[in-house]
Amino acid sequence: MTFLQPSSNMLSTAPVKISVYSAGAARSGMTSLAEAFFKETGYVVNLTFAPVGAIVKRLADGETTDIVVLTDRALEELVRQGKVVSDTVIEIGKVGVGIAVQAGMPAPDISTSAAFRQAILAAKSLAYADPAKGASSGIHFASVLEKMGIADDVKEKCICLTGGYEVAEFVAEGKAELGIQQISEIIPVKGVTLVGPLPSGLQKITTYAAGIMKAVSAPDIVASFLSFAATPIAAHAFITAGFSKCGSTTPTS
Fold first, then answer.
1. CA distance 199 to 218
2. Contact yes or no for 188/48 (Cβ under 8 A)
């Protein structure tokens, strides 16, 4: 498929709306991108955000959309299933998991794995995205607790929430002492401070990618938006939100 570059001659003359199902980690970047694309072309982008696992389930249940923004592994599986066009896939960027505290509160030492473990044990409450709902960061943090051997020790003070922004907002409201979430779902939220990323031995860097679903109703317009996601405007939006290495091609096989 040939990508069209957005330009003034593509200004909307019909009520075409692009539908995007996106992982919550890309929410800030995708929102900025959709707004910029509308200003450039006049086309509206309808964004639906949910955990990766929830989006995959919705697609399996028969829901349709034009573009999906998911982890690279989830997107590769959709390509394998024939639901996403393989040569449309682009990398959005990479992001790690971080720790948030309420703005103005002391930041714990998380500089080493041992310090991080102690901070988790010392915290009165921990909020993170629910692994049972397919949240990538929640699945990883649950595995970190197991790896550190403290899952049973902290389970009574763990609060599992639906999505990443909810985690940061919970911390901002003082309902949890620490929030563990993708960095891109901490930085945009007012009222919280990013303490830092998980220590390298416990960190997980996740690559997010986007691709076009098969049988979309307006393929040229949909492709133009995906092309827009590889522009410097998009790179700036995602880097500002905490991503890195935006816009390069992601292998799908």
1. 44
2. no
